[in-house]
Amino acid sequence: MPRRLLLALPAVAVLAVLPLLLGAFGMTLMNYTGIYALVALGLVLLTGVGGLTSFGQAAFVGIGAYATAWYSALHGGSPWIGLVLALLLTGGTATILGLATLRLGGHLLPLSTIAWGIAIYYLFGNIETLGLHNGISGIPPIAIGPLSFNDPIASYYLIWILLGLATLFCANLLDSREGRAVRSLRGGVALAESQGIDTFRVRLEIFVLAALLAGLSGWLYAHVQRYVGPSAFDIRPSIEYLFMAMLGGAGHVAGAVVGAAAVLLLKNVVQDILPLLTQNSGQLEIVVFGSLFIVMLQNARSGIVPFIARRLPRRPPPPPIAAAPLPARPPLAAGSPLLSVAGVTKRFGGLVAVNNVGFELAAGEILGLIGPNGAGKSTMFNLITGVLKPDAGRIIFRGEDIAGMKAPRIAARGIARTFQHVKLRPSMTLLENTMLGAYVRTRAGLVAGALCLDREEERSARADALEQLRRVGLAERAHELAGNLPLGQQRVLEIARALAAAPLLIILDEPAAGLRHLEKATLADLLRALRREGLTILLVEHDMEFVMGLVDRIVVMDFGAKLAEGMPEAIRADPSVQEAYLGGVA
Amino acid sequence: MSALLEAADLQIAYGKVEAVRGVSLSMQEGQIVAVIGPNGAGKTTLLGALMGLLPSRGSILYDGVDLASLDVEQRVARGLCLVPERRELFGEMSVADNLLLGAYTHRRDRAGTRRDLDSVYQRFPVLAERSAQSAGTLSGGERQMLALGRALMARPRLLLLDEPSLGLAPLIVREIFRIVIGLRELGVSILLVEQNARAALQTADYGYVLETGEIALHGKASDLLHDPRIAATYLGGGVV
Amino acid sequence: MTVEIALLLAQDGVANGAIYVLVALGIVLIFVVTRVIFVPFGDIVAYAAMTLAAIQSGRRPGTIWLVLVLAALALLFETVSLLRRRAAHRLPRAALLYLCLPALPAAATWLLAGRTLPMAAEIALTLALVLPIAPLLYRVAFRPIADAPVLLLLIVAVALHFATSGVALLFFGPEGARPQPLTRALFDLGGIIFPGQMVVMLVGSALFSFLLFVFFGRSLTGKALRATAVNRVGARLVGIKPTTAGALAFLVASALAGISGVLIGPMTTLYYDSGFVIGLKAFVGAIIGGLVSYPLAALGALFVGLLESYAAFLDSSLKEIVVFSTLIPVLVWRSMVFGQGSEDEEEQMES
Questions:
Q1: Which chain C residue has its CA at the smallest distance from A421's CA?
Q2: Which residues of B touch C224 (CB under 8 A)?
Q3: How many CB atoms lie within 10 A of CB A322?
């Protein structure tokens, strides 16, 4: 936090003296940059970080702008109460729309944003109290006591202070527990859910936050422009906001400001140049603009800020700080029953993927669940971890039936998992990926994180994650990006993340698949060390060699049913297992 | 006699992960060659690269031609056909349509396509029975037959078969391997990727054992069949 | 509302719905084959209507320039891509496909401008001129990023719509255009008057829907398109090039857009930006149908036409709001009944 302020200081200083350097036109440009950047900032969170695309942000800007215009211009009220009204209305609308649409998957969600975006736009032009297509004029400037923000320079300070605070809010948020949850959303919910994150709630939070930022922008817009009309809240400006966020670099908070400035400058340049080339410049402007957007999406998807950030030296990692340990679960007595699977069946259409399978797992044990390809191991795995719901049977974990429970709730009960196809966030550091695992052990919410009220817990989570990385032997690389690790170490990092949840049971999904001999040996040593520390492990694996020297007992599945159960050597010698693995004689 | 397929020093990577490293293999026209190995050894990846679905480094000569500049569709047109592990049928379309689309590269030769269709129906009578049914409604074994039939419609010279026995009951596995041997008599060469090592080696002339992306063993299939090191690869113990 | 008014509104709604059906079919076709949600589709519908109006009034439609510019751009893209792959020998074919073929109708329109032509010739000229637009847009905007996530393709499509609607304003101006009706006949059916143009619309829509159905069900080319939609890897493995299938889907869709424009043009004055709303409404219909099934998309489009007609009767200013708001409950219902849509694409591990 102090470091971030230090970095921002020169920028703040330049911004503070800017009115002395720029003329009236420059100030107007800066003001609109700030107003648009607020909307783009919301899109950075929503689209760039969270992966949810909205084509309707301009509608939220419109709600904010119309709310304050209606109250202050038509009813003579204070713009500050107008602000409250603007935020209440945008937040309320966003909550309702979000509750209705945020469960939509894939491309259906962005499509729904086009729909409500257009519907709200048409609404503005058809409500009589809002002045129909003429809009509302005569909006008073914002004032604090005798201080009125009615000239560009005064507005400039107001806009940019608000923008600065909003940027700080978002930057802090991204660096907190809830922010990491947002960052884990991108690229499928399986990872987030397995860490105990309620993805719907997180989506709703950032959707409403982005709408509030748009509402704030609308409030400023109305009082700086002193007039609102429906055309500013069409789908076209919505796309421009999206363009700003993507051009700036949708994953970075700074991208919002950079993108807004770049788009405004670009538009001005286009407006200046086109009339020199053609008389139809007004019409061509949008053509040029659309084409430029397409060229950018085709050739430079990551945007300006990441392009620059890659060329800057990485900041040195903060030194580790001693912190209070995170709460841990009381350890279980070795040998006490932990997991009991009984009569579990799962069908896909006519195919019975898992057929009446049962087994027991005691605390402190390593159990191997093995079988050839297509035996139903992965389905069994998904049933225990809550990704799938069994058609029949019970899965008892510490005396509670967890069959059919959703993945986040199962994670919260102390079952941590890894993925066969490694799921890490490549653009987060090893430490941040590991801290994601501690989500179930920490509590700070979005606002606490954004206002830095969570710093004590955050320090504990950081210290704990470092400790987990040390346990698995990755402590030296804690501040590198996870995407830079070779596959073997990515698997190990997933184990560190699982450990950060302080689980009672770890379930590993084919951890040896695709690993080289040496990597397998290292992994096996790590798992043995973890068992000595008293951890209970369920190992779902195809690789018999890997399983043999490691586990206490083995359950073999074939064609969806349990084929055998016993000690490793007995399983290896079992002719039915050999047949399942090597194939029958044709 | 020059080889029909000659792959040298293939490297195939997914991002940073090298799934196949320095694999070389060769096969003659008319041969059945098996590539066996446990899960995650890189067998499917290898076929993907031979077919052009995945980028690779190293050289692949097919019938003396360097495949590097040919895309998937051009390889199909030259008689290199893949029956993938996931079958990749057109589930919502009829069995007959699936087969007709198999002949897409010969679409101008209608009479020839007709003849090919008849001979596929002869080879797989069950497909003729179900010709109007949609492919998605077929059983696992029938789907595999349809995938084979669709590949045959393209008049392959070299057929790449990925796990033809996967997920099938033992009786049907036997049937599928009988069909594979029958295909050789048609003059089709076959590169067979299988986990079912015994069945594959009994069918093939020559075998390669792939382990964690590298060739651990290769030799005449009949020798490999009784090699104790094969069982070790699958069941643990390690290849020396 | 009397029965008579209800029937009249239904008549109107079905007529509009008939056009939405064609547009929806085109949108679904492009989506299932290429995964592109082709937002500018409606703009091409508007192009067609305005081109026909321009030809009828003896002017040279701006579409000529649009096609030529697009053709030159597409040829440029193709040339660069061919040279990069060291396939210079395929340049002549590319020039023929991307420049010469699209230039033919453009040249014909240029030469014939101002002469009185039979209406069939005017329509044929319009369709031929509009036909290359969507495939050329595909080559320029979407081919370079054919493997990108659906979302990125969607954003590009929306940006492309801005360009296409700006082009419409540039070439056709802000004034509305309305081509001559295909027929001025009136039919009296039990007291209700049907304008001939409306009958032509219904018959045209039904006819081309049927032709499309035959194309997909009978011809190998149509089947190849369906195969690409059902299973892209499978299609590649039988030798169907995804890019060829994509270009073909855009070509067929372009024809549908042209026909829709010619049919709807005489019924209502179209402006440079009217296409967007037509496309979006058809699109709402297509989504109601689930974006994958042609018959369901057609039903959804008819439903939207009717909904719009009745909403306009209650309050003409409400019709857009009603149509677009309907999408949300429909989407919610679909996601509850059919579960989540496709899982979001996994983030790529950075290298």
A1: C346
A2: 101, 104
A3: 7
pLDDT at B239: 35
Widest distance between CA atoms in chain B = 56
Contact at 8 Å (CB) between A505 and A341? no
Structure tokens at A55: 């084509």
**Largest interatomic CA distance in chain A:** 94
Tokens of residue C135, six digits: 């495939």
Torsion on CA atoms C85, C90, C96, C97, rounded to nearest 10? -50
Q: How far is CA A514 from the centre of its chain?
A: 28
Query: Cα separations (Å) of A534 from A32, A438, B144, B233?
Result: 60, 19, 47, 31
Tokens of B218: 């290769």
- Note the Cα A182 to chain centre separation in Å: 3
Q: Tell me which chain A residues have a C-beta less than 8 angstroms from the C-beta of C146.
A: none
Q: How many CB atoms lie within 10 A of CB A432?
A: 22
Q: Taking CB atoms and an 8 Å limit, are B17 and A515 in contact across chains?
A: no
Let me know: does B176 contact B165? Beta carbons within 8 Å. Answer: yes
Query: Which neighbouring-strand residues pair with A339?
Result: A361, A397
Banded model confidence at residue C345, pLDDT cuts 50, 70, 90:
very low
CA B173 to CA C271: how far, in whole Å?
Answer: 64
Helices (H) and strands (E) in chain B, counts: 10, 10
Per-residue tokens: B58 = 């190293």
Strands of the sheet containing B17-27, edge to edge, are B17-27, B5-14, B57-62, B65-66
Identify which of A487, A543, A586 has the shortest CB distance to residue B38: A543
**One-letter amino acid identity for C212?**
L
Measured CA to CA, the distance from residue C82 to residue C283 in angstroms comes to 35
Q: Is the dihedral of CA A458, A459, A460, A464 positive or negative?
A: positive
> How many percent of chain B have pLDDT more than 70?
95
In whole angstroms, what is the distance from residue B62 CA to residue B64 CA?
Answer: 5
CA distance A51 to C282: 27
The tokens 């009672």 sit on which residue?
A: A504
Sequence-separated (6 or more) residues with CB below 8 Å from residue A476 = none
For A41, half-sphere exposure in the C-beta direction (CA atoms, 13 angstrom radius) is: 29
- Cβ of C240 within 8 Å of Cβ of B71? The answer is no
Structure tokens at A211: 């709408």
Residues of chain A with pLDDT under 50: 1, 585-586
Place of tokens 């202050």: A72
How many angstroms separate the first and last alpha carbons of chain B? 33
Query: Would you give the distance in Å from CA A432 to the centre of its chain?
Result: 12
State mean pLDDT over C172-176. 84
A446-455, C63-72, C124-133, C340-349: segment of lowest average pLDDT:
C340-349
Cβ neighbors of A378 (< 8 A, separation 6 or more) are: A420, A509, A540
Q: Which chains does B contact via 3+ CB–CB distances below 8 A?
A: A, C
d(CA A379, CA C30): 35
Average per-residue pLDDT in chain C?
A: 85
**In residues, how long is chain B?**
240
Pairing of strands A227-228, A136-137: antiparallel
**How far is A126 from A37, CA to CA, in rounded Å?**
29
Residue appearing with tokens 């007595």: A333
Instruction: Give me the DSSP letters along C19-49.
Output: HHHHHHHHHHHHHHHH----TTHHHHHHHHH
Work out the angle at residue C292's Cα, subtended by the Cα atoms of residues C290 and C296, and round it to the nearest 5 degrees: 60
Query: How many other C-beta atoms lie within 10 A of the C-beta of residue A115?
Result: 24
Of C223, C239, C348, the CB nearest to B105: C239
C141/A289 CB distance under 8 A:
no
Q: How far apart are CA C100 and CA B212, in angstroms?
A: 53
Q: Is B150 on the interface with C (CB under 8 A)?
A: yes
- Higher pLDDT among residues B40 and C13, named by residue: C13
Distance between CA atoms of residues C73 and C80, nearest Å: 11
